[in-house]
Structure formats: C-alpha cells, structure tokens
Amino acid sequence: MMSGIAGDGKLLFLDGGMGTQLQARGLQPGEVPELWNISHPSDVRAVHEAYFAAGADVVYANTFGANPAKYHGDAPLEDVVAAGIGIAKEAASSAGGRRLVALDVGPTGRLLKPAGDFEFDAAYDSFAEEMRLGEKSGADLVVIETMGDAYELKAAVLAAKEATSLPILATVALGEDGKLLTGADVECVAALLEGLGVDALGLNCGFGPDLMLPYVKRLVAATSLPVAVKPNAGLPKVVDGRTVFTVGPEEFARDVAALVDAGASIVGGCCGTTPAHIRKVRELVSYEFVSCKSASEKSTHPLQTHPLTHSKTIVTSGSRAVKIPIDDTIIIGERINPTGKKKLKAALAEGDVAYVLREAVAQAEAGAHILDVNVGVPGLDEPAVLDATIQAVQSVTDLPLQIDTSDPKALERALRHYNGKALVNSVNGKEESLSTVLPLVAKYGGVVVALTLDESGIPPTAEGRLAVARKILARGAEYGLKPSDFVIDVLCLAVSAEAESANTILEAMRRVKDELGCRTCLGVSNISFGLPARPLLNASFYTMALGAGLSAGIVNPLAADMMTAYRAFRALTAKDPACGEWIANFKEWAPTGGSAQPVRPHGGATQGKETGASSESPLASAIRHGLKSDAAAAAKAALSEGAAPLDVISGGIVSALEVVGRGFEAGSVFLPQLLMAAEAAGAAFEVVRKALPANASGSVKGPVVMATVKGDIHDIGKNICRALLENYGFKVIDLGRDVPPEKVVEAARREKARLVGLSALMTTTVCFMEQTVKMVHEELPGCKVTVGGAVLTREYAERIGADNYSKDAMGLVRYAESLFS
Amino acid sequence: MTVDIAEIARYMRMGRSLPDGELAGRVERMRDEALKTLRTARIWRRFPIDGNVIESGGLKIEIRGTIARHIAGCHAAYLVCGTIGAEFDAFQRRVSVSSGVDALVAQAIGAALIEKWMDETNAEIEKELEPGESIVSRYSPGYGDFPLSEQRTIFKLLDTSHKIGVSLTDNLLMVPSKSVSAVIGVKKGTKAE
User: A237 with B124: CB under 8 angstroms?
Assistant: First the structure.
C-alpha cells in the first residue's frame, strides 16, 4: 500500500518539523500544541502550506499528542483531530496535485507495564480512539512516530490495523546508542513491525541524518519494506536557555541523500527542520537518486524484496532479537512447563510468581536463547494464567519466549499481549489446528513451530513427516506465511517404545533442512522416556541431533550434560570462534573423582583466627561469612558424617543465623551481610531438606503470602523480606507487585495463610494498603497482616489496622517466628 | 560515569563501612554490569519566578511553604529532570528475582548512580548561569510540604516523556524508577552569601 502511495519505485517526500515551527510562531512550553488547530488554525495551515510548497508529498497533521491518554486540552479531542486533519486537507487541496495528509500519532507519554504502570490494552484503546477520529476526519494514512518503546509501538500498530483501513507508516526514535528507550535495536524493531504487517517503517527524530546512516543501513538489510527517514536538523543544542537545531538545509539535504543512497525511499525531517530543509532535500535527493539508480541497478532498493531477508527467521522480545539459525543451533529452555514438575505445578496453582521468575532467570543465566512458557495445569484458567505468566517473565528477562499452549483462546490473548514477536508452539497438520493457529500467527507476526502430525497421527517414516510439513507450509502460504516463518518439529518419540525413532528423527531433520530449507526444533529428552540414566541418553542423542542440523533444541539448560554437548558441538564444528565459549566455560575444568569434593577453606585464614572461633563449625562459619556453596558443602559433609538432618538445622543453620541476626540488631552486622548469611543458610537448608523424609515436620514454616500493594510498582523491600523469610525456612507465596486487595485475599484464603505481608513505597499507594488490610481482616479473621515500606511508621501502621509493623526484614522474620513457633 | 564502592556502600546502609570478602566482589561485579545498562538522559529549562509563581503556557507552579523558604530571594528557577534509564530497572528486576542481596546491592547502585548524574547535571546548569548568579540545592516534589502532585506540572513543562523518556504513573511514581525531578532556585550572588 505504501509503495502504491510512493509510486512505482519513486521517492516519497514527507514534511519537516511541526513542533519547532509552532514554537517559532509563539507556542509556549507547557502549551498543548494540538489546541492550535482551533486557536491558531491559520498558523498551522501556513506551516503545512509551506511544506507542500517546498515539495512535500505528505504532511503530518498537527495531531502528534492527540490521544486520550496524553491530551489534556480544553477543547474536545474529536474537534481537535477533526480540525487538525481539516486544516491539512485544505492546505493539500490548495497545493494541488497528489498531496496526502497523515494522521500523526505520537506516544501516549505513559510507560507501559512492566516498566511502568500503563496497561497494554489501555494504550491500545487510546490509540484506537485517536485513529478512528483520524480516519473519520479524512486522513489518507496513519503515521505512528517517535516511538521509544517497542511494546507501545505494537499497541499502536494493532490499533491502526483494527480500528482503521488506512495504510500504516511506523517510525521509531533511536537514542544516541542506536536503541529505543526500552532497549530494542533496529533489527528487533524491523522484525516486530514487519511481523505486524505495517506498510513501511523507519526512523525519525533522535538525531541528525549523519548519525542515522549506519542504522538506516542496518534497517534496510533487516526488512523488505520501504524504509522511511525523518531525522532532526542535527542534535539539539541549548543556546541562551533555548533548544536549537543547527544543521542547515544544505548539509541536511546532503546527509539525507546518503540515506537514500543507503536504501531509504520515504524522506522528510523532524525537529528543527524547516520548509527550507525539505526544499533542499527535494532538489538534491531527486537528482541524486535518479543518477544513482541509473548508474547501477540497485538490488538493495527497498521497494524490491530482499531474498536474504526472507531467509531469516527472527523472534524478539521487547528489546532483543534472536535468530533461529539454519547453519548453527540455539537453545530453547524447557523448564517453564508443568508436565512432570510438581513444584512448578504447585507454584502456578498458588499464583507464586516468584518461583516461575526464578526458573526464567536461571535458564537465561545458564545460556538459553529462548524460553518456553507452558502453564497447562488442569483446572487453571489457562488464558488468564498464560497471559499473566508471560508478562511477568518478560519483566525479568529480555529473552524472546515460546508461547506453548494448545488452547487457541490462550494463544491469542498471549500473542496479543506479548512484548515482541513470539515463537508459537505449535501448529500441526490437523485442519482444526491449521485454521485456528495460522491466522493468529499471520495477524500478530510470529514464528510457529510446526508439528509433523495430522488427523492420522504421527507418520512412522521420515517421508511421512515431511509430507505433513509440506502440507503445513502450503497452508501457511495461504495466510501469507513464508517457510522462514516456520520451525519444523519432526517429533521425538521414545526409543524404548519405538526402536527406529531416533533414526527416523535424524533422517527427517536432515531432509527438512535440505529439501524444505526450513529450520528444525525438537524436544530432545523425550527420546529417553522409560529408560534408566536418562540424562546420559539425552546428551548423546542431543549431540546426534545437532549433527543432523537441529536449529533449536528444546532442552533443560540447567542440565550440565546438555550444555556440555551444545558447547562441544559448536566448538567442534567451527561455530564457536576460537573456541572462546568453550574455553570460558571449561578453563577451570578438572576430572571428577569418586570422592566428595573437599570443603574449600573460606574467609581466609586470618578471619578464622580473628574470631578465635575454634568451636565454630565449618557450617556456622560458612553461613556467617555468607558463603553459599561452602555452606551447602558443609551441610552435606555434616550429613555424611552422620548428623541427623534436624540437628543440622537447629544446631548448625539456625544457631549460626541467630548469631548474625543478633549482630544485625546490635548494629555490628549490616543488612547486606545479614542477607548474605541468610542466603548461605538457605543453601544449607536446601541440602538438609532433601535428606529429610517427605512431610517431615519442622522443615517448612508458613505459608506467608506477600505482595506489594496495588498501584505500587517498586518491590525492592518486599523482595528482600521474601528472600530473608525463605532463608529462615518459611514458605513464601510471592504475588508480585501492583497486587489488588482481592487477589491478596484470594491467595491467603486458598493457602490458608496465617500471615500476609504487605509493602508500599509511596504516600500515594498506602491507601491501597489500608484497603487490603481491611479486606483481609473482614474476610479472613485470624489472618494477621504485617506491613512495611519506606513511607510507613508504626503509628500509621496502627492507624490502618495492621497487626504488625516491621521496620526491616529482620523484624519481619522475628514477627513471623513468633507467629509460627 | 561510574560510582565507587564506598558510595554504593552508603546506600547499602553500611554507613562508613566498606563491603569486604565475598560481598565486595559481588558489589563490584554488579556495578560493572549495571554500568552497561546506563542510558542517562536529562532536561532542564529556566523559568522566571514572578510573585512566587513559575508560569508558562497556562501552567503554574506556586512556590510556598518549605520550598518558598528554601529558594527565598531567588529570581528564577530551573526545572530539571534526569534519569539513568529504563534498562537499569530491567536489570534490577532481573537480579532481584533470585537474591535479596543482589536486590539490595542493585538498589544501592542505582541510587548512587542517579545521585551522581544529578550532581553532574547541577554542574552543567551552573555553566549556564549569568555572571553573578548562583544556584541553591535541588528541591523535589514530595519533599517537605512541596506537593507531590506538582510532578504533573513539572513533567508537562519539561515534556519529559517525549524528551527524555521519563513518565509518571497514576500514583505519581516516576518511571524509570531511578529518576529525579526538582526545582533549582537561581539567586544573585555566590553560594556562600
């Protein structure tokens, strides 16, 4: 559509700055620029007319901030948008020829969750409202510009697609480091926007055309869509207290010409550019473009498609793009999937967000590139839980996610709210699956795992599985999906049940790559189902699969054998430059013997002598010094020397913690040291707990339900309290931040919790704390509520009816111990 | 920009003590990781103070109560806002998931960094002053009886969300969280006077 507007391979010229032009005409800081559509229509029209006169094909109406979330003027929004479009259309018709008016849509000025508090759906509604008004008023296209957050950008594009039938140009503002405010780079933006189906994309604002050049080159390489550029007249400078842009028309036009040379085909200016800049661009660039075009037929012209781009398979988060390679391999972390995982199942059922988040962070740290998220627990409201889990996981990792569900409702909701371009798991050859999943992938943009099974089951032969894959690819094409939008899973059946399984898988994977040119993924560990020593078989089969060209193994990145296989394969097949990753991971490797590792001396000899604590056990000493692995090793050693698990807890761990806790209360130990000791104690607890018979009493106290209250998105205090409580042996159900009172009550009731801990940081949110305390007391008599947070005092806590106030994490532990002893 | 361990230790509520052993290494490692997430930005704008009011484009900040005493005698004021960026918040969220120590350390690193950034910003503002002028220390909404709700006005006057990517939540929290907004009074005469 945009290329239709641009004409056959011709450049499309946009206007220059509006805000800076209005400021020159008297717009004051703090004024609402869009109100000028009503109060100063002739000034606004004059700016448009000047741009048309300078040769612009398209002007942006003065509607940048005209969305309900941002606009705070006196006149009704509808009038402001109608007047803005109307003025621009008057200017267009008096200019004559083919002149177009764009509805200009800027950011809401609010930061979306999880970085801020604005809901994705609220942002969407706000954009949709502005866009409906714009189309009604006669805009020819929608321009979404100056976006600094990929997530907000997605809300805006979806709104434009669903609320209007207009062509969409979307441009983002990069910082000086070439990234959006929330961290996305141009490749990430390109994958997201192309997946969502905009008509053209590009860059605006941020900096001048000279600094834009490298990013335009990268963008052109990353997309097959027309690329737009609307740079500032250089970087802003402050002169006499005013912000000014100093790059003049000549220099600007020369640098814009270089952008066109690099492949941009829609050009204009942003802050500080004037009609003179656009006139110069029009003169210089038309000429240069023509001469350059005729000199060498440019295969990289953006209005033509790039064969290279089409062969890339990219998924993204809000800030990171990950390529699923065809000539290398990546890891999809499989651990957020409750199948066969009791603890995760319980955490999902309890709403214990923190448990899931720890799994996410641990897999990311272990080297996963994409994380699978599956919340399929019978009885759970899967659409709601999957949506919430994905948003929570995205708040703690920048890895792209694989949305893993067989529920189409859950899939659509998750895809819509997902920040980025997701990997979807999965579609299969059944008609029902094809007709529900493929349209969703096409609409939201994504890469989809294709399982090679259909109505007649899993074909026993490689040929049969390829046939299903071919069928899925063909159906995908009907929805506009390319082979590079698919990752083929030829399905891993256990060798214990199907002797030829591994052979069939390996053959099928080779042929998928060779004959279909597609990437593959595989749930590797299924191969060993029903056999002993599964990790050993898994790692061997993983290596074989890698040899057969596996693009993405769905594996447990915390399994050392698997990661070793992965790293070894890459080192051995020239995919790990100079074996750098191998060396980094194994430079301290030593063969492990049969005997237990000796406990490493810790804290240095002098410290041991200092305390003169010859009576202090290695466990107590490790805890006191905050040495996690030493504490765990010491606990293991104590157990192997025959100590009773409960004695190790009460005699070793608890008494060591007690010493540190008293030190903290006396002021000789600081909070970080207390937390370090508690972490070490927690590690020792973990070891001892495993040695305890199941359901042994006294091993876990609680549960304590914890939350940061509604409206409050800072949860540092709550996190510290949670960590300390856990390290002191309490079970904590952490509901996260910004938690409404009803959810706290619901969790406390379900878990029969006797203690609820609430945290609030701001004077503006303690009112929600009061509501929550009240609701818990009304609905759950007998459940105590303890509160804490920067702005709270004991007096205030009493006034809002809390049962306890803790000034710090240790105080909370003491209170919890008094309740649960 | 960087901050040294002693500054971070102060924000870890360690007073003048310095972290040692395991903790020292951890603070240093996390500081270096945090520095990679820095995306500092800032904006300021000077306004005259006219009859205890800062006014522009139909918006108004009334100077009264404790802030009036703080900037008594000032004829102008800078509204200022700075941030170390949204990526630091993401870093802090990530490290806070699995460790209370890391949560505390990240918090302290962020606090030390934004303080440093705002001190550098002060120094930049001082370069802009007319000869014979000086500035008084920063005064932020929510401090003393300067209403937190004035954040809205400051943010509109500076156009912070558009210019530096700092916005306000419904409950007037600044996001990214490691951001500072303030009024800085300008008076005639040197600091000592």
Answer: no
